[in-house]
Structure prediction request, 390 residues.
Amino acid sequence: MTQHRVLKQLEKGERINLLGLSRDAMEQFFLALGEKKFRAHQVMKWIHHRGAESIDDMTDVSKKLRERLVEIAEIRAPKIIKQLDAKDGCRKWLLEVDGGSAIETVFIPDGERGTLCVSSQVGCSLDCSFCATGKQGFNKDLTAAEIIGQVWLAAKSFDSLDPKKHRAVTNVVMMGMGEPLLNFDNVVDSMNTMMDDYGYGISKRRVTLSTSGVVPQLDRLADYTDASLAISLHAPNDEIRDVLVPINKKYPIARLLESSQNYIARMPDSNRKLTVEYTLIRDVNDQPEHARELGKLLKDIPCKINLIPFNPFDLSDYKKVRDHDLKTFQEILHKMGHVAPIRTTRGDDIDAACGQLSGAVNDRTRRAERYKSGQWQSGVEPVRIIEPKN
Ligand code: SAH
Ligand code: SF4
Prediction:
């Protein structure tokens, strides 16, 4: 067993946020305190199944141990600044994390399925030319507690933590703000807690990491998790991708596809498929020749291609794909034998589109003003603004 970094924190006397500890980390933490492993499982169940907010709530943990825990540990989720409900059932939270910056988390219901779109960083350093988060630059990596805290808050808000009850959050996609593979340890720990029976017990097919292609980290991902994988391809060739996703200049398409296939090949269950995300931008990557080139590029790769109409925002000159071009693009891929669903935009009235979490964030000053005034966006259908309980 490799030493988890929580032991270093403990040694240094740093307060441990129990919310962020994966099972492995929690077990190592309790063993280091001279306690039995099962304490770790007990505490995880309190936090993730019952939504305990305080160590004192854990009534089946001895008083002595609780007192010790209160001294050195805490359960602290990001603070809810605002919660917004869209008319189509999407719910968005604006959350404050350590350091004072804000992140967004979105819940997207779809029949029996409820997908939570989770952020991994504040901002992003990779600067993809069509992405609002990229325009913000990089601010900080989220801690594991801030990542799993998004799931914890969402599940609590729907009162659906108890695994025996109907659960609102059935799927998680790491498609909020940030590049998950650039915050590797915290993201991996959090995803493992999402899939853990002492955590949220979500199946590995329903927890998806999305990456723009940080190949060296993708190459080692299978050593740490078996969650599902999505890659943000957005182009059928390197020439176009170099412009849209600059990290492509370092790790071009061929290397990204090879690394992705290796990841899938290492999954214990066969018939796992790669998800390929393709954002269609008018006259940039949405023409029939692009569809044909894409179909050919992915010919031998078992995958599903999600077609996402580009979501325009203030700081970008790119335009949304025309409906006709979108349909033609899809038909070409279908004819070539590909599965290529169109991902419609949801929660429009609260700017909830996945990957567009910061769509309303282009101007941070204006945004701050809007939060203060309680107005999320002016000039759109009114949305119900729910103030957090405390
Ligand atoms: N950094 C990771 C995960 C976050 S982005 C990644 O790039 O995969 C999540 C998804 O939203 C990505 O596929 C991203 O390309 C897409 N996206 C970003 N900005 C968008 C926009 N303006 N319109 C549509 N999709 C966008
Ligand atoms: Fe970062 Fe993903 Fe946006 Fe690119 S698309 S800037 S990797 S968040």
